[in-house]
């Protein structure tokens, strides 16, 4: 705990142990819903996941198989394809989103006229339900029927078959992710407006160009926010599921939804993400033991990034009540 | 920004490149706003084309034409005959409303305790909230699924609603971030007046936290409204338990060539969200800011 807390406590009347116990009990009562939730929906399932990862389980028969599931993982080509795709999204989509979000936010803070209207317009797409937005993009980018080809065709450019071509499908998803940049934009705008004005005025007096002001003043000041956006972006991308699932389903023209023969990843496994493969193995093929292996791998990787984030939050948690 | 450029800075530059400070500022102004307008077209374009397509006839929607030849308002009536949309809407509303109400009831006291109480393990509890908020839901999906299967609740939306009675990490985090900013003096004053801790929360803190509660409630509502993963996992194959998101994703495959109807259904899913946003824009923007670090 921060020394500030101790200092304050030192000034106040000394806490007697009975009072402290009462305070702890009171906190326990207020926290109880979450504590139960944490136990039932997090701690227990996590331990249980470890247990199942050493079993073969299909909801009917349970059979201990030792390390078989873990060994299978290294031979599972689809799993590695999904890892590669997820990594691609982390390396390409996340940085692009951060740069684009920052650029858009920077632009709005510099606008003299209509900043409010532009903010609303730029934010709006991030509210569009994910399934609806994905459906829309698959249609819009479809070179056969969509308007994008009609527009590009007018200037003589041939649009790629975004969601039908393995080389382009992840770029299609990236466009969709850039379109719904609103949340990130608002976070960056708040950070940009917090940068002290005097810093810019002093720099301008010294003859710093707009670009110099951005790299020497803006970026260093908002660095924590950019870091935060990047790390949460990575964590969210590790969960990337709905857009890839819906885009593949719609673009492939597969029939039926739940419990169908549809295999995610269309075209050619190029949009298969790690959580999708976990879902497929656990809840469509009912290889639940193996799905738990995938879950634990996802847990380990997410945990690394969560710990990075927690380091940033350390200051937060210490903030005095 | 350009307006703050001191005159002498500009005067030092070669006269050939910048005719006058005023001319340069005007040029900047035009450039910035031109980029903003271009971006607006890119952000709004998809929505405009979705709307235009929704009005086309099914044959025209398969061509690359941009403007509807005839405005087929009947498309919006047809989609209700093509799919059990009303059932899906009802299920989606039930999921969203109940989950939001349950979340608020359970999460507010937790957030309040984390923000205002001093107790052993407070820091640890907060770190665990952040951790559960950050970890992908897929990590613990299998055992949780098995719990609900044991209660014979798979195939319904209840596995998504009931856990909300036990708090939601993201909402707790957000509410806590807001509650710590309320000065201690308010609750102290209430206590001096003989207010118990619970009454202080209800009568003093809650009214002050209204913007944060509204934001968290709206976020939860929209999350449920848009949720695809949850219903896909639990709602099963029986369409009478589906939500709008789930049905929408399957809509196109069931009506494979009818892009116009698919887009009409898409608008139906988007419209409520966008209408709410225009009424509560400020709540949203302030809420999103809370999610960032300060």
UniProtKB/TrEMBL annotation, chain A:
Keywords of this entry: Cell membrane, Membrane, Transmembrane, Transmembrane helix, Transport
SUPFAM superfamilies: MalF N-terminal region-like, MetI-like
An example Gene Ontology biological process: transmembrane transport
Subcellular location: Cell membrane
GO cellular component labels: plasma membrane
Claim: Membrane is one of the keywords in the record: yes
Record-linked Pfam families: BPD_transp_1
PROSITE patterns referenced in this protein's UniProt entry, alphabetically: ABC_TM1
Membrane topology classification: Multi-pass membrane protein
Domain of life of the native organism: Bacteria
Residue ranges annotated for the ABC transmembrane type-1 domain, each copy included: 83-309
Keyword Transmembrane among UniProt keywords: yes
Signal peptide: none
Transmembrane regions listed in the UniProt entry: 27-54, 87-109, 121-141, 171-193, 221-241, 287-310
Family: Belongs to the binding-protein-dependent transport system permease family.
Protein name, entry field: Sugar ABC transporter permease
Organism: Planotetraspora silvatica
UniProtKB/TrEMBL annotation, chain B:
Keyword Manganese: no
PROSITE patterns: ABC_TM1 (PS50928)
Domain named ABC transmembrane type-1: residues: 89-280
Entry's transmembrane regions: 27-56, 93-114, 126-148, 160-179, 200-223, 261-280
GO CC terms, sorted: plasma membrane
Family indicated by similarity: Belongs to the binding-protein-dependent transport system permease family.
Top-level taxonomic group: Bacteria
GO BP terms in the entry: transmembrane transport
Protein name listed in UniProt: Sugar ABC transporter permease
Membrane topology, record value: Multi-pass membrane protein
Keywords: Cell membrane, Membrane, Transmembrane, Transmembrane helix, Transport
UniProt-annotated location(s): Cell membrane
InterPro entries attached to this UniProt entry: MetI-like, MetI-like_sf
